[in-house]
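How a chain folds remains the central question behind the approach discussed here. The record that follows shows the chain in one-letter code together with its fold in token form:
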Amino acid sequence: MSWYATTHYRLRTSQRSGAVVAIIIASATPSCFAICAIRAVSIEDYLAAERNRRRHAAELQDRLGFRPFGTRPAADLAGWLLPHAIETDRLAHLAGLVVEECRRRRIVVPSPGALERLCVQARYQARGEVQRRLTDGLSADQRRRLDALTQRRAETNQSWLAWLRQMPEAAKPVAMLGLIERLDHVRAAGLDPARGHRVHQARLAQLAREAGRTTVQHVAGYERQRRHATLVAVALDLSASLTDQAVDLFDRLIGTMFRKANERHARAFQADGRALNEKVRLYARVGAALIAARDNKQDAFDAITAVIPWDRFLATVAEAMTLARSEEFDAYQMLGEHYAGIRRWGSGFPRGIRLPGCAGRGGADARDRHAARYEPEGRAQPAEIRADQLYPGALGAPRASRRGH
């Protein structure tokens, strides 16, 4: 069968320049069509007409099975795009998703202007949905505490939010106290960490970054729902970052404490090195004299006095007892010297650190269980809690068997 036999002919007569234009739509090749003209100049005039372009576009859509981008497809695409816009609001990414979805649904890709309007509208709706999810269920007291973060502190000219963002860097007890104080202030708003899981974590981090790039006064000028949603994101981000800082500072403080203990132990041993060497050499000579006396069946005390006078020997024994270390020869026995520094922040650290997924094992949970022992009887909880009260067996106390027998 020839190509002309499988081709549908449609002949149109154009009055422009008295030319007859023959338009051939190849049904055998639906992805393309051919235009044959009697006069080339007449084709340009023919294609320049808007009604002809629309008619051919409609015929191509019918033949290829495409739908035009109208009101109904735009509404369907906007509803499909909203969950993606909640995760990220980058227009380039959203536009790429819309183009791919149009191809999948066999919808004619909209013009750049229509595509931009669709993505901008979806981004605006997504931001409102994110703000609604973050602020839904906030009490009046929580909203008041969030707004208080943008106010200035009474003792300084600095806002509470700016103060919370100042992370102490020095590995000192006062730095840990500052972190614990900031954690307590952030958590005073009473925000449940699970609130942050209502939206995508990338969007939550984006809100916190946007607030970090602007001034506190600008955040305070936001519209009510946007302001509270931004402050919720900032408070949750600060709670996590302050916790990370506290754990890192704890590691550095403990590491510094052990390092100082090792250094002091090494310095003390080095300072006594000459005296220890003298005692070792002396007792080696005494030992050799005793061995020789036993072999020659001589008196042991005469052998000792032959090396060193007896009075001097007694003095060296007393000196050796002073120089002697414990049997373990452990540098960590000097850790007790750092108790005063640890006591300043040791009681507040378990209370301030709340790690998710560590129920029944974290210090805060142990402290809560300890406090629960006093609540039923109305007794006052002691100000100082020993480690063996929180963790049985931590200081040598007998630990209950977990096997049950």
